Amino acid sequence: MKGVMNLATIVQKYGGTSVGTIDKIKAVAKKVIERKKEGNDIVVVVSAMGKTTDKLIDMAKQISDNPNKREMDMLISTGEQVTIALLSMVFQESGYDSVSLTGFQAGIKTGGVHTKNRIFDIEIQNVENHLKDGKIVVVAGFQGMNENGDITTLGRGGSDTTAVALAAKLNCTCEIYTDVDGIYGVDPRVWPNAKKLDYISYEEMMEMASLGAGVMETRAVEIGCKYKIPIYVASTHGNTKRNLYKGV
Ligand code: ADP
Ligand code: ASP
Ligand code: MG
User: Fold this and answer.
1) Which residues of the chain have a pLDDT value below 50?
2) Which of 43, 52, 198, 235 is deepest in the core (most CB within 10 A)?
3) What is the full DSSP assignment across 83-135?
4) Phi and psi of 78, rounded to 5°?
5) Are strands 41-46 and 98-101 parallel, antiparallel or unpaired?
6) Which residue of 47, 52, 179 sits with most ligand 1 atoms within 8 Å of its CB, as the best mutation to test the pocket?
7) pTM of whole model > 0.90?
8) Is residue 43 a contact partner of residue 139, using CB atoms and an 8 Å limit?
9) What PANTHER family does UniProt report for this protein, alphabetically (predicted)?
10) Contact 45, 38 (CB under 8 A)
11) Tell me, what's the pLDDT at 239?
12) Cα(146)–Cα(168) distance, integer angstroms
């Protein structure tokens, strides 16, 4: 999946809580613009606002106990599309050129069963062309398109996978911004005395993720490991970027 090395390219991902309101989206935009001003090319991957995905699933459950999975993907992929448009508008309003792209427009090709698709390739040209034009590229996390041209989703928490896969294709680092300030030995919300880790190997993180540490989606860590993509996890609202785990 590796593309041409470009040290100045960064993929940043902001999760649902971080983009839960318009004010929070504006705060995210400010953070991205700081890095853009430093001269970086930036791809921003975002999740649906707050609990949007849960709400969409709940609506479907009011219709059927077992809703059609293609239609589920059509439904739950909409959340991310709202966020990309709003964030891109904020960039434009702040005087920065920006474009929002759905998974399909970002070239994300997937396969497998609906609601649990896997990315098998990314046709990166469209993203690269927009970066070359100086735009901040905002990509919808969690979604892609299959060989039938249908919208697919990557499983819950799948925006992490979108971000790391894009970073793998662009051969750059991936920064995951979330509602905790890093990776802890155990979930810090459940165990308040948990210790923050300065560094964790891909293998240890994969194990933690597969045991349910939702802070990083398992598949995202697998892709990071395969392509040796440095991944940083930090708080959206902090101003320090901590190197929390990285390939060996
Ligand atoms: P986002 O919406 O940004 O993707 P998630 O809710 O998916 O955020 O992941 C962040 C959450 O992961 C934190 O709020 C935390 O409760 C949980 N979490 C579980 N295990 C860990 C861990 N070992 N270290 C840090 N956070 C963890
Ligand atoms: N919005 C999706 C979910 O809630 C994807 C993500 O947040 O990563 O699972
Ligand atoms: Mg998540």
Assistant:
1) 1-7, 241-248
2) 43
3) HHHHHHHHHHHTT--EEEE-TTTTTEEEESSTTS-EEEEE--HHHHHHHHTTP
4) -70, -30
5) unpaired
6) 179
7) yes
8) yes
9) ASPARTATE KINASE, ASPARTOKINASE 2
10) no
11) 57
12) 20
Residue with tokens 């399909």: 104
Three-class secondary structure of residue 150 per DSSP: coil
- Identify the sign of the CA torsion 185, 11, 222, 140: positive
The H or E element that residue 175 is part of is strand 173-178
- Domain boundary assignment for the chain: 9-246
The rounded Å distance from CA 133 to ligand 3 centre is: 30
- Measured from CB, residues less than 6 Å from any atom of ligand 2 are 15-16, 47-48, 53, 79, 141-142, 156-159
What is residue 230's three-state secondary structure? Answer: coil
User: Using a 6 Å CB cutoff, which residues line ligand 1?
Assistant: 15-18, 47, 157, 178-180, 183-184, 186-189, 208, 213-215
Ligand 2 atom having least distance to the Cα of 142: 5
- Which CATH number is correct for 9-246, 3.20.20.140, 3.40.1160.10, 1.50.40.10, 3.30.420.40? 3.40.1160.10
Considering the chain, what is the average pLDDT of its residues?
94
Q: What six digits make up the tokens of 147?
A: 């060989």
Q: Which helix (H) or strand (E) holds 166?
A: helix 159-170
What phi and psi, each to the nearest 5 degrees, are found at residue 195?
A: -100, 140
Ligand 1 atom 10, closest CA: 215
